[in-house]
Amino acid sequence: MFRPKVPTMPQPTGLTNPPAVVEPTAVTPHALAPASTAATPARNRPAAQLTPGTVLALVGGGTAVVLVVGAVLVSMLLAVALTAASVAVCALTVRSCIARR
Q: Which residue from 8, 35, 77, 88 puts its CA 20 to 30 A from 26's CA?
């Protein structure tokens, strides 16, 4: 009545192609071009220009991140404290119930 049905692996049908043969190719080195003697002038300006608006946006974003992470950490600490307090109350209740008997 309860017999498991084990799937069978189908056998390959038709002709299979033999693996392709890879033939090595000859590598010919190219002559290197002479390096140019003209040097590019170095830039004196920084890669990222900070405008007052950009600085204000970075400070605001950093403040927001710190506030959010702080709120999450404080809420986790509060959850742990509440759990510990409730476990302590339960332990005292069970202890007093056992002591009365």
A: 35
